[in-house]
Amino acid sequence: MATKVGLEEVRAAATRVSGSLHRTEVITCSTLDFMSGYKLFFKTEMWQKTGSFKARGALNAIKSCLERGSNPPMIVTHSSGNHGQAVAWAAKHCQLPCTVVVPEGTPVVKCEAIEGYGARLVKCHPTPTGRKEMADKIAKETGGKIVHPYDDYDVIAGQGTIGLELIKQVEDLDVVLVPISGGGMTSGIAVAVKSIKPDCKVIAVEPEGKDLWRSLESKERLWPNPPQFLNTIAEGIMTQQVGQVTFPLLCDLVDGVITVNDKEMAEGCRLAAERMKVMVEAASGAALAAALSDKMKDFAPEGKKIGVILCGGNVDMKKLPWLLEKVINQ
Amino acid sequence: MATKVGLEEVRAAATRVSGSLHRTEVITCSTLDFMSGYKLFFKTEMWQKTGSFKARGALNAIKSCLERGSNPPMIVTHSSGNHGQAVAWAAKHCQLPCTVVVPEGTPVVKCEAIEGYGARLVKCHPTPTGRKEMADKIAKETGGKIVHPYDDYDVIAGQGTIGLELIKQVEDLDVVLVPISGGGMTSGIAVAVKSIKPDCKVIAVEPEGKDLWRSLESKERLWPNPPQFLNTIAEGIMTQQVGQVTFPLLCDLVDGVITVNDKEMAEGCRLAAERMKVMVEAASGAALAAALSDKMKDFAPEGKKIGVILCGGNVDMKKLPWLLEKVINQ
Q1: With contacts defined as CB-CB under 8 Å, which chain B residues touch A46?
Q2: Are A194 and A264 part of one and the same domain?
Q3: Which domain, by its residues, includes A106?
Q4: A152-161 tens-digit pLDDT
Q5: Interface pTM (ipTM) of the complex?
Q6: Residue B78: which H helix or E strand, with range?
Q7: pLDDT digits over A156-180, tens only?
Q8: Is residue A65 part of a domain?
Q9: Is A277 known to be catalytic?
Q10: Does A36 qualify as catalytic in the annotation?
Q11: Are residues A287 and A194 located together in one domain of the fold?
Q12: Which residues of A touch B117 (CB under 8 A)?
């Protein structure tokens, strides 16, 4: 595993994965510009391979590992979501077998998506520790390599390629809004953006209950242990604590945090579908919701150029965010 | 009004509207290629101004009218749907006042969309004849110009620009699948495509109950009168009869018809959202459904290049096609 991440590592990642991944488009929408008072630039990671940005970090981690000469007989991870799909895809792309540990009770559609990329599924007890233990056990038995969803410099460098692209695609960007979970994408984008354009603000967008700013400001991990999941409709950003590796990067590089609730995220998804005709998941809706929130005024006056990371589009078509009872009754 | 439409008129329309309208992208999806057995090329008219292809014909009709030196004090049309929005937008774009006649009971969201483009709304009895009479009355009183949704050579030429673009964007296209209602888009695309690449097949995609092929083959209008609406979830293609102006063009130029039912259209919309992360309306879903249907084998062997017109993306976000009870219980 790499031992640090800077602009050089992100640039190397970009070279490493180019040709295998999409340089996703940046799209705009005059109605949403009008509604927000800003010039919004949407980075469309729902059109990335596997339907989310996670393919970037997963592929960079596996390719880096191979480049360093280690030849793992197996790639292992634990995630029923976007990271699981991304690792399965990236392993297949590198012609390596892959095992994905998912909690019992994972919806069939998600299991099929992972198996669709040729990975083997192993079920485990549906707890954060249960998943980790099972993945560790399989890695140990097989000599396999575990690809962590965020606490890995290669993964962070891979996600950083989003920032590298965005800063080239949009001249004079003032702010980037990044949905945050473990912090791999946010720290990666921050490394790239801050290295190239230090005055561009990087704002993390979190679900209620994460309380990230308190920990970042005090540079102390003030979250309760053991790690918990947040009560949010955004499956992609449910993890309350950011990573051990990502935390110091985030403390150094993140300029602020905007908190959005379920109803706002769902409305973000609805507006993306209605106005831009794109289908995004709740975590992407969170970034759009942040762009539309009053809290933006703390970071940028009207008219500024705002990058909005639409991080993924893997949605259960029967459970669209804005139609969920939980959201409607909120 | 123009008195004919050929490649020259479509090319003139393209020049006339360029700069004001989008040259919509063509997108692809490997999963849908695999599912269909073809190479599918999706023309993304849901990203056209006003969210549907209708902006092309409306703008060409109004601009052509101005070019011919007539200076109508008012633009008039009757449509609560995509055509109403498109005419309202095009009139505003040309700085002309606009009145749109809509049937009583039109959902508030549609009325707001039309008013959002600055047009005046007039309500009328909710029958095809009621709408037409009211529009005629207003046009007579104001000296206004009526923009017909399809039976107008300028409108047909405007829609034809889709075909002109597509045939340039995709080399060696074998088939184009076009959702059909009054036939303005289908005849326009057919004029353009057949003029440039005569061996490219133009297939109209219709809802059940339209029975277009029988009339085309016999070159006789075999539909019952007065004109009826079909019982379909696809509001955009409900009209049973094609136009008086479009019919002879369709008889000459259309190579075949594929019929799809509500469930197939809804599944087309679901797949577009799930696999391509784009939001399209039921008429667009119809074109994708046709590409996936067994009937395609009558027109092209596996592996051929198929253009699929995603004609619009104006969907009520609370009534998504694949979640409609009517579809689920079918």
Answers
A1: 277
A2: yes
A3: 73-143
A4: 999 999 999 9
A5: 0.95
A6: strand B75-78
A7: 999 999 999 999 999 999 999 999 9
A8: no
A9: no
A10: no
A11: yes
A12: none
